[in-house]
Design brief:
This protein is of the alpha/beta class. It contains 23 helices and 28 strands. It folds into four domains: 103 residues, no CATH class; 113 residues, Luciferase, Domain 3 (Luciferase, domain 3, Roll); 218 residues, ANL, N-terminal domain (Rossmann fold), CATH 3.40.50; 132 residues, GMP Synthetase, Chain A, domain 3 (2-Layer Sandwich). Helix 12 packs across helix 16 and helix 13 crosses helix 15.
Length: 719
């Protein structure tokens, strides 16, 4: 599960500031805003970010990026594949820092009051390798693969958590035009077996800790002959068991590099149309599908995103901690490679000074790296916001008042003038309030990108203000290699995903059955269809599904039908408002959007996660709710509700009633219809995690798995 940034990270922010703080607050809250409003009055302009374009194919309303009439497909001439982009970028930035990893000094185990043991890690500084060094390592690994006996006509798979060796192995495979199959490290056994067998993988590259999992399913893996593992201090015990398997050749990553260094092999470089990656998604339904991503798709997205983030280059440091097997992180690191940035690797469980796996007294990844760029998924940012707000409430008093003044003034400055938000007023509020909040992530963040799922407008604005940097929402799918729409850095709006990236067009196609049409007022609406260079080649070994959602028009442009419902704002920016699969019909014919209702109900302080469920034979919906442990326990203590443990509390009638009243309150405030408010709920004590198979790696709900696991509970809610 994604690591939660601890609320204690924010504690020092809310101390009383004494007379200096009072004077500063008065100056900022009264005098400076007045001056700024006079300076910037009337200067705010509406920028046209997306413009209409004539497209062929199915009728609809198409938009392109307002920056360029011609679609972008490469970052510079000659960089038509990932192999070429990697080689040219490494030569151009040869002496610059590229990949960094923290040195592990030691690990301890602490025992909690209930007897459970938790691992705590002690890390040192980042150790860096240059672009030139990483290029040499990738070439050595590629030669080692060939000398090891990998048939260059077959595929290799990477089954590992995010780390520098993942990226090196990935690039090494492309030196021999080997297609890489990417698989989530949290994928279950059945899905793992399916992915490896379907693509007939012959070489599997993995974490050493995955060796035991592979050993357990060895007899089910039909085509694997080589296993290469990344070393760590647990390698010896895990690898010895696998070495006894005579049907596999098991080698360490270092040994393969050494083999290649001694026996260099000439590269076999790919062309633009070659399949670079078959990416298996931990989709929300059924077995995962493998999306075939070409080299051209990857470089097109990288080239397009590079044009959107201002001044992107070798002075930037990117903190990599999301799963590289997810398209969002892989696309982000491809952009960093393209721009010559430094990439420092971390993990969600070691991100901050108080993260779950960080030993007390050891600094988290962000504190040491001090990144300028980061990505995040909405669930992480929602938790950051909740952590800050809870701490404000607990502190109360002057600290709470001062924070609220600062927040309101920054919000007014942003909404009145984007430039004013980052001027003198910002500097003063940073000294008083926001500097310590920002220090949680190293203090130097200048741009954050959120993707993987919709981010609420409230959270987007909150993080934007507290971190003092633009936060852009990206929209894309595995099927478009994350390249569809992207919020521009100078766009102060929230809740939108920006205009189309320069590598693609976005079309809205009317969905009459669902009531969304391009003639809708005040904004055209319809299914989001993406066309252009980022649109992938389809699903591996699944022509029927490919032909269902991928179309090629008469001019040869490839389109992907996303299933998402969007609307275009007057400035050409896209907003995602619904999803076709999430819209279901009740007994009396009313339509209900599960995603919309869930997003609304998530704003309740009691809710950590929620799944709304509809039975078409009933005229109301119900919900499974994972309550916030801390908030519900605090309520129980204040209400005098006795219980032995959290599971018992979740079964208490009083607790269910309290949470349901909270859901009704936020639902009515959001003006949901009566049939959209859950008639009954069930509180689920255990969190839903990727490891449990109930949410994806991007923390999206897996509805079918949730419905299967909680079948009995859902049935009782309708009785």
């Amino acid at each position: 599960m994604m690591g939660k940034i601890s609320e204690s990270d924010y504690f020092s922010v809310f101390k009383d500031h004494g007379s200096y703080g009072i004077v500063g607050a008065i100056i900022v809250a009264i005098l400076i805003p007045l001056l700024l409003s006079m300076i910037f009055m009337g200067k705010k302009k509406n920028k046209q970010r997306g413009v209409p374009v004539e497209d062929t194919g199915e009728a609809g309303l198409s938009m392109r990026n307002g920056r360029s009439a011609k679609l972008v497909d490469v970052p510079w001439e000659g960089a038509t594949t990932m192999a070429a982009l990697f080689e040219q970028s490494c030569k151009k930035n040869s002496r610059d820092q590229f990949l960094g990893t923290r040195k592990l000094i030691g690990r301890d185990f602490v025992t909690a009051s209930d007897g459970r043991k938790f691992e705590k890690l002690h890390f040192g500084e980042y150790q860096w390798e240059t672009y030139a060094q990483i290029f040499d390592r990738a070439c050595d690994f590629a030669s080692g693969l060939v000398k090891l006996g990998h048939d260059v006509g077959t595929r290799a798979a990477i089954f590992s958590e995010t780390r520098a060796e993942w990226f090196i192995a990935f690039q090494g495979c492309f030196r021999q035009n080997i297609t890489v199959v990417t698989i989530y490290s949290s994928l279950g056994e059945d899905a793992l077996i399916h992915s490896l067998n379907e693509t007939q993988v012959s070489t599997l590259i993995c974490d050493s800790k995955q060796l035991k999992k592979l050993a357990a399913i060895n007899s089910s893996l039909k085509t694997i002959t080589n296993v290469i593992y990344f070393e760590d201090d647990e390698t010896a015990s895990d690898s010895n068991s696998s070495r006894s398997m005579d049907n596999w050749t098991v080698s360490s990553f270092t040994d393969v590099e050494k083999l290649g260094k001694k026996n260099p092999v000439h590269p076999r470089l790919p062309i633009k149309k070659d399949i670079a990656v078959i990416m298996y998604t931990s989709g929300s339904t059924g077995l995962p599908k493998g999306v075939m991503i070409t080299h051209g798709n990857i470089v097109a997205t990288a080239a397009a995103v590079q044009t959107v983030i201002p001044n992107l280059g070798s002075n930037d440091v990117y903190l990599a901690y999301l799963p590289l097997a997810h398209v969002f992180e892989l696309a982000a690191e491809s952009v960093m490679l393209c721009a010559g940035c430094a990439i420092g690797y971390g993990s969600a469980l070691t991100l901050t000074d108080t993260s779950n796996k960080i030993k007390k007294g050891t600094k988290g990844d962000a504190s040491v790296l001090k990144p300028t760029l980061m990505t995040a998924v909405p669930a992480i940012l929602d938790r950051v916001r909740d952590g800050v707000l809870k701490k404000i409430e607990e502190k109360g008093g002057f600290g709470k008042k001062l924070f609220n003044i600062a927040y309101k003034r920054r919000l007014a400055a942003i909404e009145g003038s984007w430039l004013g938000a980052w001027g003198l007023e910002t500097l003063l509020w940073d000294v008083l309030i926001f500097k310590k909040v920002r220090s949680v992530l190293g203090g130097k963040i200048r741009f954050m990108l959120c993707g993987g799922a919709p981010l609420s407008g409230d959270t987007q604005r909150f993080i934007n203000i507290c971190m003092g940097a633009p936060i852009g929402q990206g929209y894309g799918l595995t099927e478009t290699f994350a390249g569809a729409a992207f919020t521009e850095w100078d766009d102060p709006s929230v809740g939108r995903v920006g205009p189309p990236l320069p590598c693609c067009h976005i079309k809205l196609v009317s969905w009459e059955e669902g009531g969304y049409t391009t003639s809708d007022k005040p904004m055209p609406r319809g299914e989001v269809v993406v066309g252009g260079f980022s649109v992938t080649a389809g699903y591996f070994n699944n022509d029927a599904k490919t032909n269902e959602v991928f179309k090629v028009d008469e001019k040869g442009m490839r389109w992907f039908y996303t299933g998402d419902i969007g609307r275009f704002h007057p400035d050409g920016c896209l907003e995602i408002i619904d999803r076709k699969k999430d819209i279901v019909k009740l007994q009396h014919g009313e339509y209900i959007s599960l995603g919309k209702v869930e997003a609304t109900l998530m704003s309740s302080n009691y809710v950590d996660n929620i799944m709304v469920h509809v039975d078409p034979f009933h005229n109301n919906c119900v919900a499974l709710v994972v309550p916030s442990h801390q908030v519900l326990e605090k309520w129980a203590q204040e209400a005098g509700v006795k219980h032995k443990d959290f599971s018992e509390l979740c079964d208490k009638v009083e607790a269910v009633s309290e949470v349901q009243q909270s859901l009704s309150k936020v639902a009515k405030a959001a003006k949901l219809d009566k049939f959209e408010i859950p008639a009954k709920i069930k509180l689920i004590p255990d969190p839903w995690t990727p490891e449990s198979g109930l949410v994806t790696a991007a923390l999206k709900l897996k509805r079918e798995q949730l419905k299967a696991k909680f079948k009995d509970e859902l049935q009782k809610l309708y009785e």
